[in-house]
Amino acid sequence: MGSNKLSVRHLRAVTKCWLLSEIIRYFFMKLLHADAAAISRAADVLRQGRLVAFPTETVYGLGADAANPEAVAAIFKAKGRPADHPLIVHIGQLEQLQDWAKDIPECAYRLAERFWPGPLTLILNKRAAVSELLTGGQQTVGLRIPGHEVALQLLRAFSGGIAAPSANRFGRISPTCARHVAGELGERVDVILDGGACRIGLESTIIDLSGEQPVLLRPGAISRQQIEALLRTDLLLMPRTEIHAPGMLAVHYAPVTPAMLCAAERLQEMILQLTVEKQRKVGVLTCRYSLQECRNVRCIHLSDQADAYARSLYDAMRQLDALHLDSILIEQPPQTEAWQAVHDRLRKATVGVL
Ligand code: TXA
Ligand code: MG
Fold this sequence. Notes:
By secondary structure, this protein is α/β, with parallel strands linked by helices. It has 2 domains: 208 residues, Alpha-Beta Complex (DHBP synthase); 91 residues, Threonylcarbamoyl-AMP synthase, C-terminal domain (Rossmann fold). It is built from 11 helices and 16 strands. The strands form 2 sheets. An 11-stranded mixed β-sheet has the order 1-8-2-3-7-4-6-5-9-10-11, with helices on both faces. The N and C termini lie far apart (57 Å). Magnesium ion binds next to loops.
């Protein structure tokens, strides 16, 4: 009887909390389920020069009207992003490429026709009218048609280009679900369209086509080999010393807790060293190594398949970061082609290799 009462009371309290969080969600955070009405409202918000976070197949973007300099400036302010770091313009149709870029090489069309809508950004020479505020002072502009139904519907409803970096604070991990955006930028954005978890979970592949030879600026779900096969030429790789744009900074996409990469065979030894000898609290991300949870260790086991691992990686890092541990150890995934983009992000998220 007593326990029945307790469970009824408990149920009421849980329902109240849930109702309260839904009210906060809808009225204060502006987190909207991405149905037709919400998308149309979001397009209006963009037209007013305000900010809308929206899902893409890679990560969530923090969007603004790319043709409105004040709206673009609001993105930099909301993210705390330095002004010399260029934004990607999202477009809804291939024909819009010419609104932003000039001297478009034939290979750009070949890539766009094969991979758009999809996780590929092309860097092209910008048209004179495109604001340097948007391109971080560069004479080039980044463009992509995202492969996500909500993003495409928003682009159709808005009809212009939407400038959108990943919807996180500068230097932090990209958001892969609406909850991540709400937690990090909630009060700085006018609408967040909730379209569920992102299918890919890592940012788009970026190819610079503005020079003599195509350059791979950022690896992503579309691999270097896929692009080289289509273009029938080798891609130049960005030398790591040459800092060019935000994704190129040494530590980027990083959790707050210091993270280290660690070979699977050294993982157990390192955990013991940190937790027993140094009395540290450690988070561990593994993909092949199977680890028993023990005192002072929190472990998240991710898939040993590159695409499934990529999809969950940022959420796992956020979960471990939220525990305020002393350090995070990340098991080195396999060194094969399929893991290129994951290795790139892990290098940027970590402060070293053990
Ligand atoms: O998947 C993605 O690309 C996501 C979604 C939202 O589309 N966006 C994204 O944006 O990752 P952001 O700003 O976090 O990263 C954009 C990268 C920058 O790191 C920069 O290197 C590159 O795009 N970029 C943009 N315009 C460029 C330009 N004109 N020249 C060189 N790099 C450029
Ligand atoms: Mg970013």
